[in-house]
From TrEMBL:
Protein role: Contributes to the regulation of the Wnt signaling pathway. Down-regulates CTNNB1-mediated transcriptional activation of target genes. May be involved in neuron differentiation.
Keywords: Cytoplasm, Developmental protein, Differentiation, Neurogenesis, Wnt signaling pathway
Name of the protein: Protein NDRG2
A Pfam family assignment: Ndr
Key word Cytoplasm present: yes
Domain of life: Eukaryota
Compartments reported by the entry: Cytoplasm
Family under the similarity heading: Belongs to the NDRG family.
Residue ranges, compositional bias (Polar residues): 299-309, 348-369
Entry annotated with the keyword Cytoplasm: yes
Coiled-coil ranges (or none): none
A biological-process GO annotation: Wnt signaling pathway
Chain intervals with Basic and acidic residues compositional bias: 315-347
């Protein structure tokens, strides 16, 4: 890590990591709130205290999970301690999915994916937040993307894990109908969360998740959430073309795709490192240590590729950081298809003007999971 103090530079040879066996030297304030929305109460857990104009990390889980089972592996990882010192985290649970949730009445109409996205501005208002960096998995990734499309000024960045931007097709609908006749819903959720290879070989992990889905989740509420996700519509995101007004994300985005198991569970260290790099690209945490990805490139056969333009000092010095990415001139994110089952990040950032022509400097990092 590099710290600049006037004309003196002090270099640490080792990154500051928190030992698993040691108590973290700073306390993290934790608050649980039930936020009232037109579509019911949303249970939220705020960890840490929001810091000035800095965004808060806002998470949203997948079906069959809640914020604890979806994100604890990641946020309890030792490398996340550094990030937690810089950002507060707001975990959002979909209605009725948190621990100890009461069963909805028979006539309750569960909110659609669009309605859940529409409820998030009320969550920000409740906590007095101006903007967030969204982190979602599966259904949660879909909801946060819809939120970013409808309220771009509230979202500074997105981390999307295993997102499906398309509505369920006829073939999917038929497959789910047939599976519903022959398999219980917990088994259908397991096939959504894990690939066939993981299901057939990692019996302990699958048994752990199946036990959670059956014993810890409110089955009636879970069924409503699953049906809501299956009824989603296309996000209708388009790649921006010069001169057009395509509907697309206006914030940098980190796309993570895994073909075996949730990346949060499989490689939390690698995902944390990619997240640090992503945050640094947004202009935050310029001194964050970047060691794990370098090791994985040389030792484990993982591939890490970075393509960058010339970065201005405004993106490497937090004190003089440019806020251009929060204004209308912020660059647009490009979501790229990844058919190889490898984690892929593709964010277009740092838009600059040259002779009145905007030129997007694309930065891409690819990490295999």
């Amino acid at each position: 890590q590099l710290f600049e103090m006037d004309d003196i530079q002090v270099v640490e040879s080792k990154p500051l990591l928190v030992d698993r066996d040691l108590t973290v030297c700073f306390s993290v304030k934790r608050q649980e709130h039930d936020v009232e929305t037109p579509h019911g109460r949303i249970h939220c857990t705020m960890k840490g205290v929001p810091k000035g104009d800095r965004p808060v990390i806002l998470t949203f889980h997948d079906i069959g999970l809640n914020h604890k089972t979806c994100w604890n592996t990641l946020f309890d990882h030792e490398d996340m301690a550094e990030i937690m010192q810089h950002f507060a985290v707001c975990h959002v649970d979909a209605p009725g999915q948190h621990e100890g949730a009461n069963t909805f009445s028979t006539g309750y109409e569960y909110p659609s994916m669009d309605q859940l996205a529409e409820a998030l501005p009320l969550v920000l208002k409740h906590f007095g937040l101006k903007s967030v960096i969204g982190m979602g998995m599966g259904a949660g990734a879909y909801i946060l993307t819809r939120f970013a499309l409808d309220y771009p000024n509230m979202v500074e960045g997105l981390v999307l894990i295993n997102i499906n931007p398309c509505a369920e097709g006829w073939m999917d609908w038929a497959a789910h109908k047939i599976s519903g006749w022959t398999h219980a819903e917990p088994d259908m959720i397991i096939t959504h969360l894990f690939g066939k290879e993981e299901i057939h070989h990692n019996h302990h992990l699958i048994a752990t998740y199946r036990h959670h889905v059956i014993n810890d989740m409110n089955q009636f509420n879970l069924h409503l959430f699953v049906k809501s996700y299956e009824s989603r519509r296309d996000l209708e995101i388009e790649r921006p073309v010069p001169g057009s007004h395509a509907r697309t994300l206006k914030c940098p985005s980190l796309l993570v795709v895994g073909d075996s198991s949730p990346a949060v569970e499989a490689v939390p260290g690698k995902l944390t490192e990619a997240f640090k790099y992503f945050i640094q690209g947004m202009g935050y945490m310029p001194a964050a240590s970047m060691t794990r990805l370098v090791r994985s490139r040389t030792a484990s056969g993982s591939s890490v590729t970075s393509f960058e333009g010339n970065r201005s000092r405004s993106h490497t010095s937090e004190g003089n950081r440019s806020r251009s990415h929060t204004n209308e001139g912020r660059s647009r994110s490009h979501t790229a298809e990844n058919p190889h089952g490898r984690s892929h990040t593709d964010s277009a950032m740092d838009t600059t003007a040259n002779n009145n022509v905007d030129q997007a400097v694309t930065k891409s990092t690819e990490v295999s999971c």
